[in-house]
Amino acid sequence: MAETATGGGGQRQYSDGRVELDPAEGELPANGFTNDDLIPVPVERRTWTTYNFLALWVGMAHNIPSWTLASGLVALGMDWRQAVLTIALANLIVLVPMLLSGHAGTKYGIPFPVFARAAFGLRGANLPALVRAAVACAWFGIQTWIGGEGIFLLAGKLLGRSWQEAADLGGYPWTQWLSFLLFWLIEIVIIARGMETLRRFENWAAPFVIVGALALLVWITVKAGGFGPLLSQPSTLGWGSGFWKVFFPALMGMIGFWSTLSLNIPDFTRFGGSQRAQIRGQALGLPTTMTLFALLSVLVTSGSQAVYGAPVWDPIQLAAKMENPVGILFALLTVLVATLSVNIAANVVSPAYDLANLLPRFVDFRTGALITGVVGIAIFPWRLIADPHVYIFTWLGVVGGLLGTVAGVLLADYWLLRGTRLHVAELYRPGGAYWYTGGWNLRAVAALLIGGLLAVGGSHSDAGPFPRDGVIPLLKPLADYGWAVGFASAAAVYTALAGLPGNGRRRRRTGHS
After folding, report:
1. Residue 377: its pLDDT value, please?
2. Whole-model pTM over 0.90
3. 255 class by beta-carbon count within 10 Å (0-12 exposed, 13-18 middle, 19+ buried)
């Protein structure tokens, strides 16, 4: 890797476009905006290959909520073709901001909260970081509850009725709470060992989960003697206005499923060996894996309908119907690995960095991970996934709208206004180029608030926390397109505000490679 001109500003750029701080300038000063987990990754430690990113996505996409996405759409009236098409299109769309955000991580070796400082300011970056962290904590709780449920149900097949019918505590058997806690502890132990341990775990978890899912397909196919009638079940929506009324909010919900990662993907791409590695790895890993996994879930569920007379969409519930102890143990291990791989990578890494960014002197990566684990329990995750209408339209739709707004500001700033040029050292320096007004870029905050209001202000539901006519009835028509509205409006508002008088100093001082 040949070294080229440094580009000035105490940083050097290499022939492949990656940038690092010039070692001759010394280390970043110790202040309230630096710690070992937030500083840029040196080029020699950016070693993730295409396979590492591919394995990361295979490991994250092969999980229980991904499996049941298609079931949620079928429950809303789609047939399996419409459900798989919706999921495939959503993942192609969300891949675009994923790659655009990932570029900054690979080029500069910085995590998401530091990347956000360029647009929001050194202090203002805590606003989008904490929004992202709150969502990740909720997802962490959901996935941990699902993993604990897997332990509870499948272990009950081995340990008998006394385990499954234990005394109730808060509406669930105490053994299910114990399973929840056990799974939580396993996650915390793995993430406490750091990012390199995570990379190695994802490398072997990805193929293992694929084998497990295919084994479940073979088992149900043999048991059914072929697939059942689910594949021929017609859509109750048709392809007319009834379908499109459900399609667009469902599409936004599916985008919302990975909109979290479209923001904090620099947390992973900062270890990328090249832009080509992160682009190819993500492009091969995300849309293909999610689409094939949705199709696989439909095929297995179809087989379950033929065997049991009703579709069993939850793979844990389906595996619990096995009688062979070896098969049950293998299913249990597959569920654990699948849920661990997504939950640790997608829902612990980002809030750990986000919380470290909030209080760098007191919170490091491991402490942030522990805080995430505690908050993930406190949000009562078992209530979020009980109803597909609430899960897809309310939870995923609102989350997607808010995070799309953040993505619109970040990508407009990085790609449209700066042309991907950042001054890395200034991202850690109070009073520097990204200090704005007391550490806050008020233009970015305004764009975030306006975009967020347009995206989720009209949120409505028939069986959820919002009024049927919308929180703000005038904005109700926009709510079904929350992610797109939030992304586009925030990007447009921020770009317009950035051109107003008083912003020239910032743009002049940050024009570095």
Report:
1. 80
2. no
3. buried
